[in-house]
Amino acid sequence: MNDFIPNFSWRICLVFSTSILFYPLMASDAVSAAVLDAGSFICGIQADNTVVCWGDGSTPPSGTFSKISVGSGHACGVRTDNTLACWGRDTKGQATPPSGSFSQASAGNQYSCGVLTDNTVVCWGNNSHGQATPPSGTFSQVSAAKDHTCGVRTDSTVACWGNNSHGQTTPPSGTFSQVNSGGTFYTCGVRTDNTAACWGATGGNYEKSDGRDVPWFTCWLRTDNAVLCSGTNEFPPSEALRPPNSTCICKPLRPGCLCESPSGLFTKISAGNNNVCGVRPDNTVLCWGHGNNGETVPPAGLIVKSSDPDVHDDGNDTQFFIINSGTSKVHVRSKLDKNYNITAFDSQPQTNKIYAASSRNGNSKNNSILHEVLNGAQSLEEVGEIRLFEVEGLAFHPDGTLWGWAQDAGLFQIKNGENNEPNPDEIKVVLPYDREVGVVEFKVNDLTWNRAGTILYGVGRVLYKNQAPDNTPGPPVDRLWAYHASEGTVSTVCDNIMDSLDNIEALETLPDDTLLLGFTKNDKLNFWNIDVQTCKILKKEDITTAYHDIKGLARPDCTHPYVDGF
Question: Is the pLDDT of residue 174 over 70?
Answer without folding.
Answer: yes
